[in-house]
Amino acid sequence: MAGTQRSPYLMLANVLIPIATIVFATGFFPYKPFIAGLANFTEDGEQQPPAIFDKLIFMVVDSLRSDFVFSEPSGFSYVQSLIRSGDAIPFTGHATAPTITMPRVKAMTTGSVPSFLDVILNFAEADTSSTLADQDTWLLQLKKNKGGKLVFYGDDTWLKLFPNMFSRSDGTSSFFVSDFTEVDNNVTRHVPEELGNTDWNALIMHYLGLDHIGHKAGPKSPNMIPKQKEMDGIVEQIYHAMQTQHHLQSSLLVLLGDHGMNDGGGHGGSSAGETSPALVFMSPKLRRVGQLTTRDCPIPFREDFDFYGTVEQSDLAPTLAGLFGFPVPLNNLGVFIETFLPLWPNGKDRLQLLKQNARQMLSLVKETFRSEDFEPSTKRDNCNDMDSEGAELACLWKEAEASGDNERLVLSRREPHLEQAFAFKKFCKRTQEVMSSTASNYNLTRMGAGIVLCLIAVTASLLTLLDKRRGLSITDQLVFICVVVPYMALMFASSFVEEEQVFWYWISAGFIASLVSSTGIPPNLTGAAAGAALLLFHRIIQRWNQTGQKRAGAPDIVHDVLLPHPLLLWTLVLTTYGLVLTRLRVRPFRPNKRTTMESYLSMTAGLLSLVFKASFTAHDAPELLEGVTPGVLQIFMDFNLVVGARLVFGLVIFVLVLRLARNDHTLPNDLVHLVTIFLLTQSRAQNIPLFLLFELQAVCLSTLHLNPSQLSLTSILFSHTAFFALGNSNAISSVDLANAYNGVAGYNVVAVGVLVFLSNWTGPIWWTLSSLRLIKETMQARKEKDHSPGSPFQLYMPLHTVFVGCALVAVMVACTVLRTHLFIWTVFSPKYLFSMAWSCLFHLLITIGLSTVYQKIALRATR
After folding, report:
1. Which CATH number do you get for residue 182?
2. Do 363 and 266 fall within a single domain?
3. Does residue 421 sit in the same domain as residue 336?
């Protein structure tokens, strides 16, 4: 390879970048400490409040947003009837970010605040390091104190978190999002038998179908209401058994979501829809509590998704502890839900429940703050005046203890302990606020080491880039600086991180204008026309999918033009495929037998990809095939998606091998278009026409006769623009799993992981190859005009490496400086995860790896 690729500085930079990201991550994403062991009741001589229930049926419906149950339209008509009658007590359960299954299950079962590292572990299905086997949970307490059995059916995340916990279980993969039915039928088939069994004291179910529908087609999918009705029917079946079977007379049914979903059907971020799952407690025993307040249901939709009051998901742990008569788990930060206190007529029992909750939380406070805060001292009249949060909590605890001995605080004979109960509740609430927001135990040494390593990488890549022989003009240097410096500065502003797409849309538009001006002032007619077309296509591209936080769900081309008009959508899809096959020069009747076979195979791959996308759409969004004759639609429905995808992938690879063996001047172009067939297969149907616009932009760029440095900058800018135009953002919820199982029959962590990356980075991959194709054309022009020697690719990798290194440094420093910021776990941490993907996966595998292969092919083809 030419000089750039052999540069020791550039090699050093690209070795250090992944090392830096990993070193920083180990300091930024540590596990939170926890108290080991199992909680026991303290020997204080006070009688324990009696248990209200003896069996728990815990039904988790993944992504069950609050409005799905409480508002219209909703398929939960039976649950709504129980709410109206008072047999069900509804809440909105607040799920703190990250709104991903594993950390939410940890919060619900331990009452603690999980580490953000669980976002990464959530996708590693084979991981066992995140087990809760050594942590105190209500599952372990139920099993120990009741001497019964726990049974589980559903999302196998529970089996990973609780190994050897369940007497009977049947797990299903939570990531096989193409399955709407079997994944739930596998749970439901066990329900009748378990309702008849008497040996368990906790039946846990975790349904996944509703979440999969959201990922595939969003919350307004036509499959959503039928799935809700299915879940409602299961609730009705269980509740009928609770009413009629003697061994279930003292059972509590809890229906809840582990998290909600946003308007795009995803989750992982901190939007109102993602953090607001439904939470409903159901039992005939709750009627005396439920009838204290009349509740209408359904009720009008609320944009904040706050229905019937909000409780923290961590509040489940102490509430279940009280209702079932076991100690509060040691690491709990939840507060007993006071709505259930009237179930205990005796005021002393109510006080005891809150006191036990407060004592458990006090042990965590003492582990976190200075012990001297809790030594006997003069109590201040106002705990808010304390000089530290630890001192404030110590003051509130002393105030709560003292209130029980102060006869002046007894409010009535009927509730002699009301004031002390209020004081303990105040202590618990404030402790929950303080401890939940306490900064993680960052390892600043490792974080600093990661930043230093990345700075060395940036310096090494700059040494390569600033080599005088590289030919980077002053103008190109200024343009590059105008991209890098503002981008680095914006990484310190949470709002800009959330709306990063705006930066790329604006900076790319300005760059296009600068390209036109480089053709001359005033620009020639061809340059002006190409620039105008580029800006027009750019404008259409940026309006294709609205993304980010503020504009998510706003009108865009996909939702307001294409989806309501399927004929237009498929016309554009067919045009895109036709252009790709035309670009491949598919002429099946050429005289050369070898090229004829390649043409046939290329055409077959393209047509199979098109049929696959139509069949995929028929399964996931049949409304987009409205007007298709029943016979044709049935063909699409019967098409085997797994086999179809494998055939497409296999044919693309096979033709690539044939083309590599028959190396000629057309190979570099054919390589781009063959990969495009794969990228179209890995894209949502409504995004496929974007590649038509990308190709038209590339044609416009070719008419401007840009130099290699300008094309390298174009690759950076247009790759990021394409990433966001496809609907991605810096939120975990924007990770698209819709095409992660193309050709995969079951969960395979490697295959699914690769497909998740490729399907979310299809746009940037296309622009990487297309910019290299344009540089290759520059190479041919150079050779024909006998310009100065040197590889036109020499600037490509140094420019990309400098940008990646600078961007990574900015995000690392921002995460370090703003580690106590309110949005550190909802904005900056997800951004760092995406930065890791850009630098370690896209940059190393695509920019460096794939580009190296392409450059070798291009150089060999021009000799």
Report:
1. 3.40.720.10
2. no
3. no
What phi and psi values does residue 214 have, to the nearest 5 degrees?
A: -60, -45
d(C-alpha 856, C-alpha 389), whole Å: 62
Q: How confident is the model at residue 572 (pLDDT cuts 50, 70, 90)?
A: very high
Helix, strand, coil content of the chain in percent (nearest 5): 60, 5, 35
Cβ burial 87-107 (10 Å sphere, 16+ → b, else e): bbbbbbbbbbbbbbbbbbbbb
Contact, 315 vs 110, CB < 8 A?
A: no
Report the alpha-carbon distance of residue 137 to residue 106 in Å, rounded: 9
Q: Is the pLDDT of residue 501 over 70?
A: yes
Q: What is the pLDDT of residues 121-166, one digit of tens each?
A: 555 444 444 577 778 899 998 888 766 789 999 988 888 888 888 9
Amino acid at 374: F
713 close to 481: Cβ distance less than 8 angstroms: no
pLDDT at 284: 92
pLDDT in tens, 207-227: 999 998 887 778 888 889 999
Residue 454, judged by CB atoms within 10 A of its CB (0-12, 13-18, 19+), counts as buried
CA-nearest of 334, 353, 350 to 342 is 350
For residues 333 and 111, the answer to whether their CB atoms sit within 8 Å is: yes
The letter for the amino acid at 587 is: R
- The 10s digit of each residue's pLDDT in 830-861 is 899 999 999 999 999 999 998 888 888 877 76
722, part of any domain: yes
CB within 8 A of 97, min separation 6: which ones? 268, 269, 270, 274, 275, 825, 826
Task: Strands of 137-230 (E only): list them.
Answer: 149-155, 168-172, 200-207
Write down the pLDDT at residue 35: 74
Whether residue 176 sits in one domain with residue 108:
yes
Residue 113, φ and ψ in degrees, nearest 5: -100, 110
Among 287, 321, 341, the domain-final residue is: 341
Query: For the purposes of burial, counting CB atoms within 10 Å of the CB of 79, is it exposed (0-12), middle (13-18) or buried (19 or more)?
Result: buried
Q: Which of 285, 308, 341 is the last residue of a domain?
A: 341
Q: Is position 48 within any domain? A: no
Cα–Cα distance for residue pair 468/5, rounded to 1 Å: 16
Q: Which 8-state DSSP code applies to residue 277?
A: B
Residues 609 and 626 in one domain: yes
Specify the residue for token string 């699409």: 636
Alpha-carbon distance of 618 to 399, in angstroms, equals: 64
Please state the domain count of the chain. 3
Residue type, 162: F
Residue 36 belongs to a domain: no
Rounded distance between C-alpha atoms, residue 122 and residue 676, angstroms: 31
Domain shared by 538 and 410, yes or no: no
If asked whether residues 319 and 462 sit together in one domain, one would say no
Whole domain around residue 263: which residue ranges?
A: 56-122+134-341
Nearest Cα to Cα of residue 334 among 142, 58, 94, 92: 94
3-state secondary structure of 201: strand
Q: In terms of domains, do 565 and 449 share one?
A: yes
R_g (Cα) of the chain, nearest Å: 30
6 CB neighbour count, 10 Å cutoff: 9
Tell me the two tokens of residue 851.
């580009």
Q: Is 34 inside any structural domain?
A: no
101 and 227 fall within a common domain: yes
Handedness of CA 755, 756, 759, 765 (dihedral sign): negative
User: What CA–CA distance (Å, rounded) separates 2 from 7?
Assistant: 9
The DSSP bridge partners found for residue 200 are 149
Sheet holding 310-312, edge to edge: 168-172, 149-155, 200-207, 55-61, 251-256, 278-282, 88-94, 310-312
695 neighbors 461 (Cβ within 8 angstroms): no
How much is the average pLDDT of 481-504? 94
Burial class (CB in 10 A: 0-12, 13-18, 19+), 464: buried
